[in-house]
Give the backbone structure.
Amino acid sequence: MQIKQALSHARSQLGASESPHLDAELLLAYVLGKPREYLITWPETVLEESEQQAFLQLLQQRISGYPIAYLIGTKGFWNFDLKVTADVLVPRPETELLVEIILKHLDTKKHLVADLGTGSGAIALALASERPEWQIVATDSSQAALNLAGENAKNLQLKNIEFRRGSWTAALNGKNLDAIVSNPPYIDKADMHLKQGDLRYEPVQALVAEEQGLADLRQIAAEALDNLKPGGILLMEHGYQQGEAVRHLLAQSGYNEIQTYRDLAGLERATLARR
Ligand code: GLN
């Protein structure tokens, strides 16, 4: 089987994926240990038997919905590649919005910023790389996630980041933070999307929250008050239909300057508030 035949076979099988072309190329490039451009430059190269077997096996897993990032072990976020495993949520492009908002709200002086539920470390590492002057604390309740995030920090040679195990603010010990950012679980457990596509394979504790998905957002809002300095900011990602509920719970907790931001799809995706 030639490269171009393998790709066209894969594309025809990946009809249920949102990106059959990209998926096919990512899997084959991964199997061959080459960059994607190689596939375009050498379409007539014949795969070794072992490469073909490995490719077809990965293709089967992808067809069954297993996330591409778990299969190839990496996902692009901000301007780097992160190692990812099934222990963490696959970083989403819309989460880059949170990084942009924090960068806009704090100057480049020394600041202390926490990322709660860091998972692969995506938000924390993007902030640490953009602002070497800042000190970042990244927490997670999962040791497997912290190990992975630590590995990502090491690969990116980022030193201004510290990892701590604990649920939400538990590991912060009342620090005087300039900002707290989080992409917590916010999907309602009855949401039918959980039974479809890639979400079926992602860690449920990173996706699903009680109270129609609002429980962790509410808890973080309450806890963060004890860890932010006066005027410090809290920024949380949430579901596109949760903007109003999140603004309401932040107001009830006593925050000011509450403002919701839309993602590139025009959907309400993150809300910022000031202590
Ligand atoms: N944005 C993700 C999704 O809807 C959910 C991430 C999360 O729960 N924090 O697929």
